[in-house]
Amino acid sequence: MTHEHHAAKTLGIGKAIAVLTSGGDAQGMNAAVRAVVRVGIYTGARVFFVHEGYQGLVDGGDNIREATWESVSMMLQLGGTVIGSARCKDFREREGRLRAAHNLVKRGITNLCVIGGDGSLTGADTFRSEWSDLLSDLQKSGKITAEEATKSSYLNIVGLVGSIDNDFCGTDMTIGTDSALHRIIEIVDAITTTAQSHQRTFVLEVMGRHCGYLALVTSLSCGADWVFIPECPPDDDWEEHLCRRLSETRNRGSRLNIIIVAEGAIDKNGKPITSEDIKNLVVKRLGYDTRVTVLGHVQRGGTPSAFDRILGSRMGVEAVMALLEGTPDTPACVVSLSGNQAVRLPLMECVQVTKDVTRAMDERRFDEALKLRGRSFMNNWEVYKLLAHVRPPKSKSGSHTVAVMNVGAPAAGMNAAVRSTVRIGLIQGNRMLVVHDGFEGLAKGQIEEAGWSYVGGWTGQGGSKLGTKRTLPKKSFEQISANITKFNIQGLVIIGGFEAYTGGLELMEGRKQYDELCIPFVVIPATVSNNVPGSDFSVGADTALNTICMTCDRIKQSAAGTKRRVFIIETMGGYCGYLATMAGLAAGADAAYIFEDPFTIRDLQVNVEHLVQKMKTTVKRGLVLRNEKCNENYTTDFIFNLYSEEGKGIFDSRKNVLGHMQQGGSPTPFDRNFATKMGAKAMNWMSGKIKESYRNGRIFANSPDSGCVLGMRKRALVFQPVTELKEQTDFEHRIPKEQWWLKLRPILKILAKYEIDLDTSEHAHLEHISRKRSGEANV
Questions:
Q1: What is the CA angle 9-15-21, rounded to 5?
Q2: Of 394, 391, 417, 395, which is closest to residue 406 (Cα–Cα)?
Q3: What is the mean predicted confidence (pLDDT) over 297-320?
Q4: What SUPFAM superfamilies would the database entry show?
């Protein structure tokens, strides 16, 4: 750790930070405000709320109030922005900015954290560039003294992007996007059930005037027939194509059609395509019963998803650090997420690229607009086009046979992965088989061929429709080899948890004895525990996280009513503390006990003492998470008994074991989208590998790189040979030896008011957006 960073606790002494939310609200803004306030106070700085956005900055007075630790309590689970946001005309005029500068100087505030969309952030940059002129004007007119001017000689600005459209270039995800997707998907799922009853076509209009992100991801997450987005207008004969597509879907036996339209959708000539236009077209040409639903402001509402709370919190921490480390020479920056890395980017570069996209669309340079949106957006578009617009070939000549299976415990999103694997496989012209009940089913021959409609409507369904078991293959190699020959299986896609990975290792071992096992296979990590080596995320973990989070919210609410109550909640995850840690961040827990971060009786004592102190404040409730296997002796009951005894007369304790609800439920948008893209990526790899492994008329794959885990690493999806991942695995505890999320634990402790050192050595350095374009998360 570098020495200048070591003093995070004193970094803010003598400094003041103001935080404001501006422009359209977005879920997760409160999480960011809470983190800015608490981390600011932790560093020794004074933190001020600016109410009503820039308007409050201009009007001053009671709009700018000092924040306390407790004033941001219970904010985490609220949607919108608690400190208010307003569109502000005054700040656009220099006169307004002069008043704003005066209000800041008088309070000694030289650090401004702006949470909003690109308009709000551009405004902040203008304000910063004029700062010294504004000060000299104020000094000339006698509004501020020379001494005040010197004290506030420069203004630091850091932006956080809060916008449900995800329309800001340079950030993979803006605060609020994931929550907006949650709202949309809840509605799409509800509409799907009624559409199926009546065989209807639904046209859904989602927000996004200049950006089609929400529409695009929604269509991937619900398997829509068609999506209209501003960046990619349809071809000139789109009416023909759309109607043909809808009737094909119907003829395959589907009872519903879903068409997603972004509010800014246009055709190649820039003429708007409205949801009514589409409805009229379908009714006129096909005579289908068609309904339009415009989602509107529902998308901005509701509680933030777990992802947005963690994103808001992490960005808030990073923003405070960027402000306090700022000098007159550092450009105004935005803090954002790339893959799962926090990055700082020059604010104006991002604004420029964001404007370039709009200009490219205005000038009908649509290919360029798509490129500027970044690689992740383009990947979404490619997968959508494949799944929605390519017809599977009629003949299976020269095709290969690939089998898909689920292994391990059920996880939400497994079905979405199976669906995209099967459909992409069919589009490539392969024969696709599905295996029921994991390796056991492969041994018993529970295998059948899957056609296009076999997996219809699977994206939104939780659990595992194929059936899944933890059984490993080793003891049934004889039968498995026989079935590989019998069904002519030439490639295997294994979707599952830690057993899918260890099963893969066993298959590699078995190749020495059984030639039949020399076929390419790929493991797609799918488990709520997120403990598969070689991947930062696994399918199903996001859904489980949201389930835990929702439960914790309800429990906290009940505790807020009874007061002086501490809840101890046990989460799943085996030995892996991912769920407990991330849910702790997202639900605002006081502590999260996990196996990877060993704790002693002294730590438990410190936690109890901490809660005793907390009961003296206005926040009279506590939330403690415990991973199921964090310690064999300090069980949930033990911790509950300890807290009950030590808290006598000060607080009551209650315990909850969440259990299997964490494996159930409908998959979240993230898990649907992630699973869909992983399935597509796995099949593209598979068809290449099978062709490579063709020897004398049969498949023979014997190299280490023909058995891989497909994982998300930092910013890209990568294939890693299972044998190479052995070194990185702790087999006894079924977890990877290195886990990226452990470095988020200090944030959890600081936000819960513990005096600890924040290791800021892993800080994001300023990057440039052009470089980022090529290295972006390739998901």
A1: 100
A2: 417
A3: 94
A4: Phosphofructokinase (SSF53784)
Closest CA to 86 of 107, 104, 63, 112: 63
Phi, psi of 557 (to 5 degrees): -65, -40
CA–CA separation, 728 vs 738, rounded Å?
Answer: 7
CATH of residue 511's domain is 3.40.50.450
Q: How far apart are CA 302 and CA 289, in angstroms?
A: 31
- Active-site residue, 165 included: yes
Do 243 and 157 belong together in one domain? no
Domain carrying residue 612: 541-663
Q: How far is CA 536 from CA 524, 714, 717, in A?
A: 12, 7, 10
Which segment of 98-107, 123-132, 193-202, 759-768 scores lowest on mean pLDDT?
Answer: 759-768
- Please tell me the distance from the alpha carbon of residue 429 to that of residue 390, in angstroms, as a whole number: 11
Q: Mark the binding-site residues, compressed into ranges.
A: 24, 87-88, 117-120, 163-165, 200, 207-209, 263, 291, 297-300, 470, 527-531, 565, 572-574, 628, 654, 660-663, 734
Claim to verify: residue 223 and residue 344 sit in the same structural domain: no
CATH value at residue 649: 3.40.50.460
pLDDT, tens only, 463-499: 999 999 999 999 999 999 999 999 999 999 999 999 9
| Contact indicator for 149, 105 with CB cutoff of 8 Å | yes
Of 592, 638, 591, 631, residue with least CA distance to 611:
591
432-454 pLDDT per residue, tens: 999 999 999 999 999 999 999 99
Say if residue 170 is in the same domain as residue 228: no
Q: Does 685 lie in the same domain as 643? A: no
What residue has token string 């190649």?
268
Burial of 197 (0-12, 13-18, 19+ CB in 10 A): exposed
Give the pairing type, strands 341-346 and 333-338.
antiparallel
Q: Are strands 652-657 and 621-627 parallel, antiparallel or unpaired?
A: unpaired
Structural domain total, the chain? 4
- Specify the DSSP element, H or E, that contains 721: strand 716-721
Return the pLDDT at 778.
Answer: 42
pLDDT band at 697 (very low <50, low <70, confident <90, very high): confident
Q: Which of 165, 172, 178, 553 is labelled catalytic?
A: 165
d(CA 417, CA 402): 14
Model-level pTM greater than 0.70?
Answer: yes
The sign of the CA dihedral 656, 659, 664, 667 is positive
Compute the distance between CA of residue 590 and CA of residue 554 in angstroms, rounded to an integer: 16
Pair 690, 577 in one domain: no
Q: What is the pLDDT of residue 776?
A: 40
The rounded mean pLDDT for the chain is: 91
